[in-house]
Specification:
2 domains, 28% helix, 6-stranded parallel β-sheet, alpha/beta, globular, Quinone Oxidoreductase, Chain A, domain 1, 337 residues, single chain, Rossmann fold
């Protein structure tokens, strides 16, 4: 089969590799689409999380073409999305049901072969069924939508609350949609790029602020009449951390979603004096079926973030390089065909 094999920083090659053989408890899925995640992009430019060589890609959807012994809930021809998290089932987090904070957490596409290939072999427990009326393109967004929904669900946001979202990339835009679905009365998105500002408005933002043109904290406080109840950091840099915390009303919450690649220094008095909370969200747990249901009903509309669909052979030039050089792109889906 064709697969994009990652060998380290800026080194990925289209190769012919053997189709995986099914084992007991596993299924072989013919990949339809795999989304390029920010993690894939970071990994391509600087190896960090993944083993090498590795087939990247963890936002995966496809059709089952073979099943192993003891697989009981699926059959050949079933349409599925893959929840890529692999856990130990033994650590304290796993025993409490918080498998997203597993001490030995791994993932398809980082530690085990992922979706930038024609086929992927996965455990039955990592499959989630898709409704017949959901397109494979939309299904490829279930995984990032789950990240966003988990963050909103885990936050202090209540119906009628005001929210600010820092970062208008795919996760920030999906958080905007989920916050709207959760009943936020006002959503303010902070984003530099014009294309993503437009997408933010389309995804449910009431206002968009360009922090290069105006003081984001001051403007948020003006628009929200004193500050927001919850800020979501989907950018992961010190500037957005500070702005997110400073935009809160007393007692408000900063929810951190993005990966921070560098440490952050801050004055804890800003937090203490207003009893502001800092919370974090990692990946997701037991939420894929809810995400699919809301997508199917149209309660969350995530189609707008799909900006391109490309072939596997074009993943470097039309995928990684384009996402790095053009902020007009948001979510690029890769097809092995």
């Amino acid at each position: 089969m064709k697969a994009m094999v990652y060998y380290g920083t800026n080194n990925i090659k289209l190769e012919e590799v053997a189709v995986p053989e099914v084992q007991p408890g596993t299924v072989l899925v013919k990949v339809k689409y795999t989304g390029i995640c920010g993690t894939d992009l970071h990994e391509y430019h600087k190896q960090g999380f993944s083993k090498v060589p590795m087939i990247l890609g963890h936002e995966i959807t496809g059709e089952i073409v073979n099943i192993g012994e003891s697989v009981s809930n699926y059959k050949v021809g079933d349409r599925v999305v893959i929840e890529p998290i692999i856990t130990c089932n033994e650590c304290s987090s796993c025993r409490k049901g918080n498998y997203n904070t597993c001490e030995h957490l791994q993932s398809y596409g980082l530690h085990h072969p992922g979706g930038f290939a024609e086929y992927i072999l996965v455990k039955e427990k990592n499959l989630v069924p898709l409704p017949e009326n959901m397109s494979y393109e939309l299904a490829a967004l279930v995984e990032p939508a789950a990240v966003a929904m988990q963050a909103v669900k885990s936050s202090a946001l209540k119906i009628g609350d005001k929210a600010a979202v820092f970062g208008g990339g795919p996760i920030g835009l999906l958080v905007t949609q989920c916050a709207k679905a959760a009943g936020a009365s006002q959503i303010i998105v902070v984003e530099i790029e014009e294309k993503r500002q437009q997408l933010a408005l389309e995804m449910g933002a009431d206002y968009v602020i360009n922090p290069q043109k105006e003081d984001a904290v001051k403007r948020i406080r003006e628009l929200s009449n004193g500050g927001v109840d919850v800020s979501f950091d989907a950018a992961g840099v010190e500037a957005t951390f500070h702005a997110g915390l400073s935009s809160l009303i007393p007692g408000g919450e900063l929810m951190i979603i993005s990966v921070f690649t560098k440490p952050v220094a801050y004055n804890i008095e800003i937090q203490r004096l207003g009893e502001r909370k800092i919370n974090t969200s990692r990946a997701y747990k037991n939420i894929f079926p809810q995400v699919i249901s809301l997508m199917e009903k149209g309660s969350i509309n995530i189609n707008p973030i799909i900006t391109s669909k490309i072939s596997l052979k074009d993943i470097v030039e039309q995928g990684f390089n384009k996402l790095s050089s053009s902020k007009d792109e948001c979510k690029i889906l890769v097809s092995p065909e």
